[in-house]
Amino acid sequence: MYSPSPIAESSTKLNNFIVNGQLPQRIFTRREVIPLRSEVLWRIERGAVRTLTWSEDGTFITLGYWGPGDIIGYPLSKIKPYQIESLTSVEVSVIPPQLWHQDIDALLSHIQQAEELLSIVHRKPISLRLWHFLVWLSEKFGREVEDGILLDLNVTHQEIAEVLNTTRVTITRLLQQFEEEGQILRNKRRMILRLPNKFIAK
Questions:
Q1: Could you tell me how far CA 195 lies from the centroid of its own chain?
Q2: Strands (E), the chain
Q3: What does pTM read for this prediction?
Q4: What number is the average pLDDT over the span 121-129?
């Protein structure tokens, strides 16, 4: 007796969801790796993730940070190895190929954000690079508070260093400098950016 393959069963279930006007959703815990599937994209409904690769010597290279409304997935990249890591608890919707055209705005936004991050990574000096990265993060994951913009995402100094192609020691030193100069404030493990008095190197 014929028994459908797991892939065929998965495809059938996906089509049933679509017929009913719903998309299947998945929830991933913090630091969980989101599976790479060549036939689907993921739309983030809640939470934050980062996409990354690594070099031959094992050095991590961050490719992007993504939040609610962003589209992510293996079909958007030709980089190998490629990984999607949850930075928080994350809820995503599964988007099959026949529906990709409905998310053209999100796909264009993906390209634009990747280019913005690429331009930031090449800024000099490193202090300017770091500040623009913090501003970029605050625009995606920040919320207004009394003292400025609270960066509502716990990013480690090491993770920032991996994005900006520098060392953790350098990031720690510059963040301390920003704090001394009043450009950022500490709120437990979060940062508040004081954008009206932001530091911009001429």
A1: 22
A2: 25-28, 33-34, 41-46, 49-54, 60-66, 71-72, 83-86, 90-95, 142-145, 148-151, 184-187, 190-193
A3: 0.81
A4: 95
